[in-house]
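User: I'm writing a short report section on ligand binding and want a predicted complex to refer to. Could you take this sequence and coenzyme A and write out the structure as tokens? A short remark afterwards would be nice.
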Amino acid sequence: MSERYYAEIVGTGHAVPERILTNFDLEKMVDTSDEWIVSRTGIRERHIADENTYASTLGTKAAISAMEMAGIGADDLELILVATVTPDMPFPSTAAIIQKNLNAPKTAVMDISAGCTGFIYGLSIVDSYIKTGIFKTVLLLGVEVLSKITDWTDRSTCILFGDGAGAVIIRATLERKGILGTYIKGDGRLGGLLMMPGGGSQNPASKESVDGRLHYLKMSGNEVFKFAVQAMGEASTTILEQTGLKAEEIGTLVPHQANIRIIQATAKRLHIPPEKVYVNIDRYGNTSSASIPIALDEIRSNGNYKAASPLLLVAFGAGFTWGSAAITW
Ligand SMILES: CC(C)(COP(=O)(O)OP(=O)(O)OC[C@H]1O[C@@H](n2cnc3c(N)ncnc32)[C@H](O)[C@@H]1OP(=O)(O)O)[C@@H](O)C(=O)NCCC(=O)NCCS
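Assistant: Sure. The structure tokens for the complex follow:
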């Protein structure tokens, strides 16, 4: 009988830009208030990249930390997979640029576009590659520099987002641990609720596209909110059913950090108490595909991280996409 592999996270890392933009800073830029932002979203501050910082800059830093924790070198990597909607450029992929920065010439490289669910999609892909024996050591990243596609005159979106990168090293193991299951879904009919219409083959960059502000993120916040609450609940209960875990067995719920009210609604639906719910949205805002791997690195840097296991990861995002994963350390 052939060997059965499981995919285990053996290293984590994250990187955020130094510059912090607080709600009080935003009060000077648009008609908003710290009180409104905190009460509607839970966000107090976010990190914003300078003009010389790109997705690959943050991703490379996060990757180096994750490789150090895992005790591996660039030569050990077989695949670099980057989840992002803010790549350095349409092509080559940000994974290829990070590969060059890391000097990891033996790897396959690819980017995936699944919005804020990108990291969960990535886990699902990596899990399949490892289970089938195709790759044994993979670098998976969620990397976003959303500040570069944010319309800083639109108060309904510019308060929400932040920049950052999270990385994990995933290795094949013969023990039953690591990724216990993943679940991913999409519904393209809802794509128009959250999109950046410019810069692709439909609306290539032109004077008209720039004048029309098509290169900025557009969002119908209210509808996204309603969809998110439903999708996060559905993805969480599905992964519990699929893995046979009970909600009370979950050590830590790691939800995508989009809005504290969406996080609370998800935890409430699962009857998971607040002390088991990981929240860092107050410090980072919504960093899209980076939010879950940043949280994983913060959890892992706590000496008692094994007590936080098993973890239920759940996200939703542009596409629309949604998904979940259950993992153990
Ligand atoms: C964006 C979001 C915080 C807005 O909160 P909301 O409670 O839905 O607020 P509304 O959009 O209904 O707006 C309520 C009022 O606040 C105003 N408002 C919007 N942004 C504001 C801001 N930054 N400061 C002050 N007032 C603001 C609106 O203009 C509106 O005023 P009106 O009633 O006079 O028209 C919320 O809808 C949300 O988080 N949606 C999900 C977004 C998301 O997660 N996106 C990422 C997906 S991965």
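A remark for your report: The chain has eleven helices and 13 strands. The domain at 6-176 is CATH 3.40.47.10 (Peroxisomal Thiolase; Chain A, domain 1).
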